[in-house]
């Protein structure tokens, strides 16, 4: 009797996780591609580009609030607790803030790489301006007015590129952090047996909100359709892939080396996400002086939305 009850309970848990895998994939794709289709259709039929840009900026602030709450309320506490539990199980007492050090390394890696890219861009622009100046000096007597126009024209693109040359890096790192985090969360759910239904429902809605926010951020950067579709598809597959691996490894116990590697990956991902979210997304959206109060309101709305979803885990 007891063995039959245990086997039926295990089978029910397997069915719930398998159903969550399918629903997670479909719901993430729906929440991700819906805002992209709506915004592109609105851009096609809208006659006022200013209003479209304002709506997109406010929606991007909502996404920033979602990412900020995910970072401060979900990613960082989960990482620190996992590090503490891992070293507690290993009976290791740390006299050095290792968790914070790994977090800082992830933060500084983004900072250093970004500054190196900007320095390379500045050197390239300086070389092109020097070449243009030499050409202008050669043609100054023949066409002085054209020389002045060419100098002013050559200064413009470099100034614009310096402000946008690292956008691709930040978009890639944002997608990388979200996919790694989604995979690890799916892995935890795939191997979980207690409070399974509540965790699956919470994760389903949470990943839907994150997929919506990611789609808004990608659309705000005006990326190509293939890049946006590929990024959303990759994020939508990450969590179901983690759940599938958790189902495949059900019953297997992770060794201390695996736990330490996972903690290190989570720490570096958390540091990268802090840099990309706080220094990149939030300040970029709140930098322009227009509609500050509305932007703050939408950012707080996104923060409150994630807070309400995470509160259901308690």
UniProtKB/TrEMBL annotation:
- Determine if NAD is one of this entry's keywords: no
One GO MF term attached to the UniProt entry: zinc ion transmembrane transporter activity
Chief localisation class:
membrane
Q: Which UniProt keywords are listed?
A: Membrane, Transmembrane, Transmembrane helix
| InterPro entries noted in UniProt | ZIP (IPR003689)
Q: Know the name of this protein?
A: Zinc transporter ZIP1
Does Transmembrane appear among the keywords?
yes
GO cellular component terms, A-Z? plasma membrane
> Its membrane topology, per UniProt?
Multi-pass membrane protein
Where in or outside the cell? Membrane
Q: Which domain of life is it from?
A: Eukaryota
